[in-house]
Specification:
22-stranded antiparallel β-barrel; mainly beta; 753 residues
Length: 753
């Protein structure tokens, strides 16, 4: 393996040139086994945690440790080319790094699980809790995976795991990330300047990648919420596999975080006796087989499931509501390399299902038994399902320091269905069966990258043919980088994108409150094809101990439906077509000396909507954007002990306050708004703190104990404000939804070297 500094190439210009050339020409992997290096040096304790950074690989690299210092290893790596000949590179400096963030190229953020971490005050590495700390990304309702990127909504993002699209990004309807880190070795986040290879979205791109060939070893974790197991397997030098298994503890154990999360993310607002039962699991497996030096086969599969049931007993009625969210997916890929080009073929299938089953029993007198019995009064079922199949073929040039190209074709099929069933008093039956809406998309894309002197230029073009709509969409992608110095780079990008699948205001279950919004496909009517255009400008200053990135963006949405999630108050059920604008500044800074790290991010985002038939066509704020968000974090490391903290402040999100109520023949009543999203919630504040202690590095099993406290100051942040009408009092009541209560979490991790 070739060791490099995290996103840096040292101070020597010749060394920089050598490493960049090797990285591009041979696609080498750079990684670091901290425990192995410590053994070679005869250390019992590492001076600091080393951050791993993975890149795409073609050949494995060989290395020998020659000498060391408290902060630096000097290596003489050897790599092999496609013919098997050994090639020796210049010496490479590798710096010990505290956990932090990397930017391998301007505009792209990289996490290396579990070492590269921003939200160390959270539960053990949770990928989406880390991503939300980046500038330009918000989660105003505290839902893990509910990422609002550059003013867009979560359904506009494209999230993939090894090329397979993931729709379910959280467990407990927003409490935890849906995938454990055993099969996530790398995560990249792009908010702008996205390559033409990627379509089917108008927001950000998040790629989660497994690399079973570099999994460190066995790992087992026991926490107050769940148990987690990572199992690697290697057969010879050609086959590697890793499995991740996580399952929640029984809900009846009612540990402190279970009580808090179930109360916050699964709220119950109805009076009477209530009983909640919930659970989740996620299983994933990733494997790679190297048939020959120039051929790789990869296979991946996952299964995610959440279940929540709520029983409410009142005087004469008993209701049971059960909701389920289940996702699964699998994919295959073949990568091949020839002397002048490389090719990749990929096929994947994924699906997500939202289900709600409701049963209402009534207490009635049984004359035969002479007592009261519960008898079925009504039943209802609602199922929302997405099935997505995708095949892609890509051919590209071999990596070159100056010129690279890529062309490809992508076929995508989505089936979206909604089925509802209701039965009243077990006699009158009503069945609605909406046949699956098939969305077929053909896409052709091409891109090339060219570097001349200090300039690096990327240009791409993507053509999407939406068959069911009879519409074609041409999407240019442009990006320009200019290296003003070895550490300072400026960049600019322009892109057009579109998507044909959305979430709506309608929920699968009203009990869960905006955590189970249903999916629909573009139909050219109530939900037209959503189109965006974005331009961005920024600068990046990067050194071995610090990173500074500043960015400005402007984004425009066209053909936006008022039924789309996140732009209007859900009580406004009229259909309107409109557009939205967002712009803002993003700033990220990080400083990493030898034993501690501090970082901060600031986001300033302003978003406005304009719908035909609303407010006479004038613009008004959207209700998904916090105008200012400021985040500070830091960690300190000494021997086996670490302390981490995270503090977050944000502006309150806009919302609409109804002025009056009018009668409605279908809904019974509806609110009337003089101003749309004209009110603002109070400011948001939250402080998280955690501590880590690890020991046993000189034994087979290494141990780590993590304690964390979330919302340690017990802030009652209002995340959402809804209004409910009481007809008997002719009064509009306010219902506030608050942030998570103070939560203590404890976790023990065992891992092999």
């Amino acid at each position: 393996m070739l060791l490099l500094p995290l996103g840096l190439y040292g101070q020597s210009s010749s060394l920089t040139s050598t490493l960049k050339s090797a990285e591009l020409k041979y696609g080498v992997q750079y990684n670091y086994n901290a425990s192995l290096a410590a053994q070679k040096q005869g250390w019992n304790d590492l001076p600091a945690q080393v951050v791993d950074f993975h890149a795409q690989i073609r050949e494995r690299a060989l290395l020998d440790v020659l000498e060391s210092s408290p902060k630096i290893y000097v290596l003489a790596p050897m790599i092999t080319d496609t013919s098997g000949s050994a090639i020796e590179l210049d010496e490479v400096e590798v710096f010990f790094q505290q956990p932090g963030l990397a930017q391998p190229v301007p505009g792209k953020f990289l996490f290396q699980a579990p070492n590269t971490q921003l939200n160390l005050a959270a539960t053990p590495f949770d990928i989406f809790q880390n991503i939300v700390q980046l500038p330009g990304i918000q989660s105003p309702d505290e839902q893990v995976g509910g990422l609002y990127i550059h003013g867009g909504t979560p359904d506009q993002n494209l999230v993939t795991w090894n090329g397979i699209r993931i729709y379910q990004m959280s467990h407990v309807y927003g409490g935890l990330s849906s995938l454990s880190t055993h099969t996530i070795q790398q995560a990249t986040v792009e908010k702008a300047g996205i390559d033409a290879r990627w379509g089917q979205h108008t927001g950000g791109l998040i790629q989660l990648v497994s690399q079973p060939e570099y999994h460190p070893g066995w790992s087992a974790r026991l926490g107050l919420l769940d148990v987690d197991l990572g199992i690697p397997l290697s057969i010879g030098s050609s086959f590697d596999l890793v499995m991740g298994l996580r399952k929640s503890l029984p809900a009846k154990w009612d540990t402190p975080p279970m009580e808090v999360i179930s109360g916050h993310y699964l709220p119950v607002t109805s009076p009477g006796m209530n009983n909640k039962d919930w659970g989740y699991h996620d299983y994933s497996v990733s494997a790679v087989y190297r048939a020959q030096k120039a051929h790789q086969f990869r296979a991946h599969a996952f299964d995610l499931r959440d279940q929540f049931s709520l029983t409410q007993v009142q005087t004469q009625f008993s209701s049971l509501e059960q909701t389920e969210q289940e996702s699964s997916g699998y994919g295959l890929s073949w990568q091949a390399q020839w002397p002048n080009f490389a090719m990749q073929t990929q096929w994947s299938k994924s699906e997500v299902t939202l289900e709600m089953h409701e049963k209402l029993d009534q207490l009635q007198w049984d004359e035969e038994d002479g007592e009261f019995d519960w008898e079925g009064f009504s039943k209802a079922d609602k199922i929302n399902k997405i099935q997505e199949t995708e095949a892609a073929w890509t051919i590209n040039s071999l990596p070159d320091p100056y010129l690279n190209w890529r062309v490809g074709y992508q076929w995508n099929l989505k089936k979206i269905g909604l089925n509802t069933f209701s039965e009243q008093e077990l006699t009158d039956t009503e069945l609605f069966d909406y046949s699956s809406n098939k969305l077929i998309t053909h896409a052709f894309f091409a891109s090339f990258n060219n570097r001349i002197s200090i300039f690096s230029f990327s240009a791409g073009l993507r053509y999407n043919q939406y068959s069911n709509l009879g519409v074609g969409r041409l999407e240019p992608r442009l990006k320009l980088d200019m290296a003003l110095s070895p550490s300072l780079t400026t960049y600019a990008s322009f892109e057009k994108k579109s998507q044909n699948i959305f979430q709506t205001h309608e929920e699968i279950s009203p009990s869960l409150e905006d955590k189970n919004n249903m999916w629909v496909g573009a139909d050219g009517g109530y939900f037209p094809l959503l189109m965006t255009q974005q331009q961005s400008f920024g600068a990046q200053l990067q050194h071995k101990e610090y990173l500074l990135d500043i960015n400005y963006f402007q984004k425009h949405w066209d053909q936006l439906s008022s039924f789309n999630y996140g732009y209007l108050d859900p009580n406004d059920q009229d259909f309107h077509i409109g557009q939205s604008e967002a712009s803002g500044f993003n700033l990220f800074g990080q400083y990493k000396p030898s034993s501690w790290v501090v970082w901060g991010s600031w986001s300033h985002i302003v978003g406005n909507n304009q719908f035909i038939g609303l407010k006479n066509g004038s613009s008004f704020p959207n209700n998904n954007t916090q105008k200012n968000t400021l985040v500070f974090g830091g960690s300190w490391h000494k021997n086996r002990f670490s302390v981490h903290n995270l503090f977050r402040m944000a502006s309150g999100r806009p919302y609409s306050r109804p002025d009056s109520v009018v009668e409605d023949p279908e809904l019974g009543h509806r609110f009337v708004y003089q101003n749309l999203n004209g009110e603002t919630l109070p400011h948001y504040r939250r402080w998280d703190l955690s501590a880590t202690y690890h020991w046993g590095e000189d034994h087979v099993w290494q141990k780590k104990l993590i304690c964390s406290w979330q919302n340690i100051t017990a802030e009652k942040n209002i995340l959402q404000r809804k209004h409910i009408y009481q007809p008997e009092l002719d009064k509009i009541n306010v219902l506030n939804y608050y942030s998570v209560a103070p939560t203590f979490y404890l976790s023990l991790i065992l891992s092999t070297k």
